[in-house]
Amino acid sequence: MPLPDSTRYRLRVFARLLAAIAGGYALTVAITWLLAVLLPQSRVDAVMTATLVSFLVYAAIILCVFGKRGHWRQAMAWLHTWAGLFVCWLLLMVFMSGTASYYRDEISLWMKPELQSAASAKAVPPAQAAASALNYLRQHAPDATRWVIELPSLRQPAVAVSWVEPKTAAKKRRARQDQLLLDPFTGMALPPPRATEGGDFLFRLHFDLHYMPIVWGRWIVGIAAMGMLVAILSGVITHRRIFRDFFTFRPRKGQRSWLDAHNAVAVLALPFHLMITYTGLVTLMFMYMPAPKQALYGSDQKTWLKEAYPQTARKVTPSGQLAPLTELPPLLAQASTRWHGAEPGRIVIDYPGDANATIAIARQAGQSFSNIEPTVLFQGATGQLLAATDYDAITPSEARRAMYGLHLGRFADPLLRVLFFLCGLAGCVMVATGAVLWGVRTRAQAMKSGRTGFGLRLVEALNLGAIGGLPIAFAAFFWANRLLPVEMAQRADSEIACFFGAWAVAALLAQVRPTRGMWRLQLWLGAGLWCGLMPLNLLTTQVALAGFDWVALVVGLLLAGAAWKLEIHPKV
Predict the structure, then answer these.
(1) Residue 168 has pLDDT above 70, yes or no
(2) pLDDT category, 569, cuts 50, 70, 90?
(3) How far apart (Å, rounded) are the C-alpha atoms in residues 207 and 61?
(4) Number of neighbours of residue 82 by Cβ within 10 angstroms
(5) Exposed, middle or buried, 7 (CB in 10 Å: 0-12/13-18/19+)?
(6) Between the chain's N and C termini, which has fewer beta carbons within 10 Å?
(7) Cα 180 from chain centroid?
(8) Cα separations (Å) of 551 from 238, 530, 535?
(9) Average pLDDT over residues 272-276
(10) Which residues contact residue 435 at a Cβ distance below 8 angstroms, ignoring those fewer than 6 apart?
(11) What Rg do the C-alpha atoms of the chain give, in angstroms?
């Protein structure tokens, strides 16, 4: 008995999916394995080169599997739609939390109002801040085997110190003291701020997810990012008038308006979307594509780490002989001169007070694209230069570090960071409008046939739960920071629970009633929560308004504008 046409179509689609995803990955592994072996480069450079191109090879294979001779553009349109739809809700969360992470330090500072006074203080020279921190460590951790000093910067005004306690008979492992914040002027410990993950939670959320093993979260996000890369490339192929479409917008035209909005924001920040997706894969590329490394290094992880991540740090063995540390200011000046005037950012002292002590000084972050800052290593007792790592050579390894740093955006000055933030918001709008467009188009087709299926209702509910629910979840996270008792046990975890709890409630309501009225309710609720953050901050703290408060107000007004538009324009 012959199979129905619909069943045969689904089987063909499933076969292509299996060939593209599983077969494409296996073929990419084979190609990059062979490439790493044949490239006329050093081992580490060959691994880096082969792994960097692996994602482009994988994407090209997927495009070819779904391409049809004579109907290439139509096939790419199908691939663009479904590759984007299957990952769009997760990608929206990743884009939102990743975009917020460009202001990770500022968010953390807002969520720790107890540190606002230190933020408003005048900056001090690195040498003075280091001396204050060193005095504190000498008084409170004289027997530590390691001192770590994080010097203040424009985005982190306090000095952060931590140390490692030596092993004892009771403790078989060295214990690390949690980071403490010091006043850079006096060296005195600042009052401990309220417990919160702050911007670090949003940063980790966008690639680790939460409430699951980290490896699982990273693989899930990696699969979504690969889907995003395929969707972008297939979208570029599909739109023959891509730049002309950027200047076309027809308001209040239903499906056509959503398509115009999707095209406009996609083209507006297309280089950013490609960059942020590809470099996001590069950040964890050895986990996603381990074949080239396995081809040349096998299980020799120690040699791989030594060649791929050369550091000035070396294993230090204490001599048992006491020797005072040399003065830090000359070493800081020498390091700064080596970096053409750039200021130091981190100081690590191993075995302070021992004749074999070492002092490692790393450059302040944000001076280059690279995610690893150059480091200078000195002998602790004499100040003699032992080693230096500058990362100046143009190599595949440095290219990978630059891509990693480009994804993080720490190098960006204030104006460039604003541009990155706006491009990230454009990415959020691109993903959201693409998801809504599928629902609007499918509903129009269903209305003609007089039949709406379960899949359409599910997608519309997921759209509402993500697009309407995520702003509520983010706002709930910030409200919890101000309303939860400061001395509450497990306070940071409770803030995160408020984030996911608010999102879960919004998503559940969306599944129960994925209606236009629920869209308006969630958008108005999100608008109220975001606009309310400014008065909430004024009522619950004694600090002045910061840039975060004004951005929250703008976000709230944008949500209110969207809700109001739904009220007056039924075709939107």
Answers:
(1) no
(2) low
(3) 25
(4) 18
(5) exposed
(6) N
(7) 25
(8) 36, 9, 13
(9) 92
(10) 84, 85, 88, 89, 92, 459, 462, 463, 466, 467
(11) 27
Task: Transcribe 460-520 into DSSP letters.
Answer: HHHHIIIIIHHHHHHHHHHHHHHHS-TT-TTHHHHHHHHHHHHHHHHHHHHHH--SHHHHH
Are the C-beta atoms of residues 388 and 373 closer than 8 Å to each other? no
Q: What are the φ/ψ torsions at residue 83 (nearest 5 degrees)?
A: -65, -40
b/e 435-472 (16+ beta carbons within 10 angstroms → b): bbbbbbebbeeeeeeeeeeeebeebbbbbbbbbbbbbb
Burial letters 273-282, b for 16+ CB under 10 A, else e = bebbbbbbbb
Instruction: Supply 528's token pair.
Output: 């109220």
266 token code pair: 């996609």
Task: Please check whether residue 79 is in contact with residue 234, taking contact to mean a CB–CB distance below 8 angstroms.
Answer: yes
Whole-angstrom Cα distance, residue 149 to residue 145? 14
CB 399 within 8 A of CB 52: yes
Q: What angle do CA 49, 53, 58 make, to 5 degrees?
A: 150
Q: What angle do CA 534, 535, 537 make, to 5 degrees?
A: 65
Q: Residue 140: left if φ>0, alpha if ψ -120 to 50, beta else—which one?
A: alpha
d(CA 151, CA 364): 8
Q: Are 344 and 126 in contact (CB under 8 A)?
A: yes
Ranking 49-53, 186-190, 263-267, 535-539 by mean pLDDT, the lowest is 263-267
Q: How many CB atoms lie within 10 A of CB 424?
A: 23
Cα 565 to Cα 571: distance, rounded to the nearest angstrom: 10
Distance CA 75, CA 57 (A): 19
How far is Cα 297 from Cα 294, in angstroms, rounded to an integer?
5
Contact 252/569 with Cβ under 8 angstroms? yes
Residues pairing with 387 in the sheet: 377
Q: Return the bridge partners of 149, or none.
A: 161, 347
Q: State the DSSP code for 349.
A: E
For residue 363, list its beta bridge partners: 344
The length of the chain in residues reads: 572
What's the pLDDT at 225?
94
Beta bridge partners of 163: 147
Which one, of 421, 142, 160, 395, lies nearest residue 276 by Cα? 421
Contact between 131 and 147 under an 8 Å Cβ cutoff? The reply is: no
Coil/strand/helix, residue 90: helix
- Say how far apart CA 485 and CA 489 lie, in whole Å: 9
Q: Cα(504)–Cα(198) distance, rounded to whole angstroms?
A: 20
Q: Is the pLDDT of residue 422 over 70?
A: yes
